[in-house]
Specification:
By secondary structure, the protein is of the alpha+beta class. The chain folds into 3 domains: 174 residues, Heat Shock Protein 90, CATH 3.30.565; 146 residues, Beta-Lactamase; 93 residues, Orthogonal Bundle (Helix Hairpins), CATH 1.10.287. A 5-stranded antiparallel β-sheet has the order 1-5-4-3-2. Strands 7-9-10-12-11 form a 5-stranded mixed β-sheet. Strands 6-8 form a two-stranded antiparallel ribbon. The longest helix has 52 residues. Keywords: ATP-binding, Cell inner membrane, Cell membrane, Kinase, Membrane, Nucleotide-binding, Phosphoprotein, Transferase, Transmembrane, Transmembrane helix, Two-component regulatory system.
């Protein structure tokens, strides 16, 4: 690879195509379990309150209003009979007594009086009909006369029209601020209770979610849940989760021990075998082939170890420019390989420098192996990156033949090999699987897609380092 092929910043940038759907999907808006439970409980309580009010209205309020109307009609009839059969002096005294003792005011009805009928709703209309039926068809029931609000009943005494004014509360419960205060208090207590119940339900699930996230990050000791809770179902879940975390911790320890054993037990005899080959094999060509086979076995061991690395990783600020330059340098120089880069200066991501360099090295090696032009034998690789919000989008593509679209999703599966044109007997089928796992360990996402202008494109979404 010539020096010109490794220029980190090109005046003609490699185009960064639209990221494939798996990396551009945004999570849909979701509601937490607490708010969903709270809303359901609140709706249930509101529905129950409305049903209670309707039941009270049908079974208590309306019958009581009609009964009070009947009593009021009887009172009017009695008052009218008393006034008819009393002389003038006794009539004045009776009117004063009714006003003082019963809260009934009787006044003459003038032709110029203005009034508004008592017919605002179904109950008021029923009351008006009940009073008219008891007192006569010429009875008027009004809710306001000459600007004075109240329950006004118009009747006649010996052909003379009169008004009887009484308190509207006689025919039903008192409406207004009292009902609003009680309803507001009930609503507040109901919503407070719903919030407490939702919090009580959500708390163990929140703890379980936190413990699961810690296990996912490889912290098995910090994920112990309380096994002595009072709720039997939650207790069984906590016990099962703790046992699972303990078993995963044991598996992780066994894997680390196995990897250490593989690294120690295989590399030592391979190094000794290579030394013996160099010293004992006389045929230079055979010696070269044997040394190449030993190098290939070493490379395969490296691939297995890279793939089986623990998932726990502490991210740190990494210069993307330096990592890409180091990866290009590490793959060596090839006069038939041309690499162009378009990465803005000072682009930094959160991750591990060694892991990220291994990612780019694997992708470049994969492109050099399978992205070669079959006619010219030249490999062209474009690397581009751009920042977007809190992420950095990276694209590395070759200009080869691409792959069958049906096989793209399987290329990141371990030990999977595509068609013959993009595989080799020397491959392990772990290169892209290692890349996928390494990017995921750094909190990013990885996807493959055929480029619209030919070749295979690898897309990465990495976490942008804070400035």
């Amino acid at each position: 690879m010539s020096d010109e092929s490794r220029v980190p910043f090109e005046t003609q940038p490699a185009s960064l195509e639209t990221m494939p759907a798996p990396l551009e999907m945004r999570p849909s808006r979701s509601v937490s379990l607490f708010w969903r439970t709270f809303l359901f409980l609140a709706l249930l309580l509101v529905g129950c309150t409305v049903a209670w009010l309707q039941t009270f209205r049908a079974l208590e309020y309306e019958p009581r209003a009609l009964q009070s109307a009947n009593q009021l009609a009887s009172l009017v009839n009695l008052s009218r009979a008393a006034l008819v059969h009393s002389d003038a002096i006794a009539r004045v005294s009776l009117i004063k007594t009714l006003a003082a003792e019963e809260g009934l005011r009787i006044a003459p009805r003038e032709p110029t009086d203005t009034f508004r009928l008592y017919n605002t709703d179904a109950i008021s209309r029923n009351v008006s009909e009940r009073l008219s039926g008891r007192l006569g068809p010429d009875t008027l029931v009004a809710r306001e006369v000459n600007g004075t609000a109240g329950l006004w009943i118009g009747f006649t005494i010996d052909g003379d029209p009169y008004w009887l004014l009484t308190d509207p509360s006689r025919i039903g419960p008192v409406a207004g601020t009292t009902w609003l205060i009680w309803l507001g208090t009930a609503a507040l207590l109901s919503l407070t209770g719903a919030a407490l119940i939702a919090r009580l339900i959500n708390r163990p699930l929140k703890k379980l979610s936190f413990a699961a996230s810690r296990v996912r990050e490889g912290d098995f000791n910090a994920s112990q849940l309380n096994e002595a809770v009072a709720t039997s179902e939650i207790r069984e879940v906590n016990i099962g989760f703790n046992r699972m975390a303990q078993r995963l911790s044991k598996i992780e320890q066994d894997r680390a021990l196995m990897l250490a054993g593989i690294s120690h037990d295989l590399r030592t005899p391979l190094a000794r075998l290579r030394l013996e080959t160099e010293m004992s094999v006389g045929d230079a060509q055979a010696r070269e082939h044997m040394a190449a086979d030993i190098d290939q076995v070493n490379a395969i061991i490296d691939k297995f170890l890279d793939y089986a690395r623990p998932d726990h990783l502490k991210p740190e600020r990494v210069s993307l420019n330096q990592v890409v330059d180091a990866a290009i340098y590490s793959v060596g120089q090839d006069q038939n390989t041309y690499i162009t880069t378009n990465i803005p200066r000072d682009t930094a991501v959160m991750g591990d420098a060694v892991e990220l360099q291994r990612v780019f090295s694997n992708l470049i090696e994969n492109a050099m192996r399978y992205g070669r032009d079959p006619e010219t034998g030249v490999v062209k690789i474009d690397i581009a990156a751009k920042a977007r919000d809190d992420t950095v989008l990276v694209k590395l593509r070759d200009h080869g033949k691409g792959v069958n679209p049906e096989q793209i999703d399987q290329l990141t599966q371990p030990f999977y090999r595509g068609d013959v044109s993009r595989t080799s007997a020397t491959g392990t089928g772990l290169g892209l699987a290692i890349v996928d796992r390494a990017v995921a360990r750094m909190g990013g996402r990885f996807a493959l897609a055929n480029s619209s202008t030919g070749g295979l494109a690898a897309h990465m979404k990495l976490v942008k380092a804070p400035s």
